[in-house]
Amino acid sequence: MLRTVSLACSTANLCKNTKPVWTLASAARFSDKNKGDDLETDLQKDLKKLNEILKTGITETETTSSPKEPPVDKNFMNFRKQAEQEAFQRSSIFNWKTVLGTFAVGGTCLAALFYIKKIRLDEREKHRKQTAGKARIGGEWELMNTDGKMEGSQELRGNWLLMYFGFTNCPDICPDEIEKMVKVVEIIEAKKDATPIVPVFISVDPERDSVARVKEYCSEFSNKLRGFTGTTEQVNKVAKTFRVYHSQGPRTNKQEDDYIVDHTVIMYLIDPSGQFHDYYGQNRKAEEIANVIEMKVLKYQAQNRKSLLNLF
Amino acid sequence: MPAEPQKSTEAGSVAPEKKLKACCACPETKRVRDACIIENGEEKCGKLIEAHKACMRAAGFNI
Fold first, then answer.
1. How confident is the model at residue B6 (pLDDT cuts 50, 70, 90)?
2. Best of B6, B26, B38 to mutate (most A CBs within 10 Å, chain A)
3. What distance in Å separates the CA atoms of residue A201 and residue A211, rounded to the nearest whole number?
4. For residue A173, which residues of chain B lie inside 8 Å, CB to CB?
5. Mutation test of the interface with chain B: which of A260, A266, A269, choosing the one with the most B Cβ atoms within 10 A?
6. pLDDT tens digits along A60-83
7. 8 Å CB contact between A194 and A188
8. How does DSSP classify residue A193?
9. Rounded to a whole number, what is the distance in angstroms from the first to the last CA of chain B?
10. Residue B29 forms beta bridges with which residues?
């Protein structure tokens, strides 16, 4: 009875009734059947509300149970820490020092490659130039020899030739150069197993240098010296072949036939196959030229041996 | 041998200095010209040839 009374009081509070407590007690005592039905409905409502309150309490307990979740958060936090640790370890591998070192090594290798490539290109270019230079100078030529017959590169093939372009009226340079040429030939032939070299004199003064005159002129220097002359057209052609510059000098009024021919002072070395091999200027001495020619001859023979080996 | 002195005397009687100087004058320009002609060909050495001629004219030769 007391419990029912306490419940009634609580329900009264919920119903928001302003009547005092004793009034309710009196009402309970004098209750009719109709009034009893009303109480039952009130009780049901109260029970429902209590159920609701209990549910909310359960939810609260669930919320209070949230502290149990930290272990899951801990795992999550551990995952973060592990990721950070891994990142830190990787950063030690990929630091600035390593990057700079790699670039330095790579750059050095590239520079070395470019340098080597440049050297090779330079060598090829030099070789190309030398080949081109050789190809342009020399070639087939033919002039009148001291016996009055046409002769030239064809007949002289198989011999090393040392050629000089001058003229018989040349006062100083030509005799000196021809003597030098003859001396070179003598120096080379004086040694053992020497390769014979034929000295050749070609006149660039066709107007005055006749066959007889050239013959006499050459015989004064050496019996081995072969002289050549020809018509103006023939001489000009040969001079052009060997890039020899020549032009008639000043003529004096007294004697029209007295003039000096200006020409390049250069000696030419021709190999047995008739190809231009080398040239020597005015400044070089006989001994120097002889040594160079010997080296050239040895190299030429070595190359021929290689070519023979290739054939076989 | 006797022919040579005769030739030299003839040359001397005419114009010994000019003859000697003609082939030996202007060695610098001549050397450069010769090197150019042998290496590049006469067609490409016109300037040097003219330079040598100018030098010869300056030396008193009629070219």
1. very low
2. B38
3. 12
4. 23-24
5. A260
6. 666 665 565 556 655 566 666 778
7. yes
8. T
9. 32
10. none
Determine whether domain A142-310 maps to CATH 3.30.70.240: no
Question: What is the pLDDT at residue A63?
Answer: 62
Q: Which two tokens stand for residue B27?
A: 């060695």
Compare all CA atoms of chain B with the CA of A266 and give the residue at the minimum distance: B34
pLDDT for B15-45, tens place per residue?
444 444 466 678 878 778 888 887 777 777 8
Tokens read off for B54? 């100018």
Match 């949230």 to its residue by tokens.
A66
Residues of B in contact with A265 (CB under 8 A): 30, 34
Place of tokens 């197993």: A193
Q: Which residues of chain A have pLDDT under 50?
A: 1-4, 6, 8-9, 12, 16-17, 19
For residue A31, give every residue at least 6 positions away whose Cβ sits within 8 Å of its Cβ, in sequence order, or none.
A39
Beta carbons of B61 and A170 less than 8 Å apart: no
At residue A192, the pLDDT reads: 67
Chain B residues in contact with chain A using a Cβ-Cβ cutoff of 8 Å:
3-4, 11, 14-15, 18-20, 22-24, 30-31, 33-35, 37-39, 41-42, 45, 49, 52, 56, 61-63
Spans of all domains in chain A = 98-133, 142-310
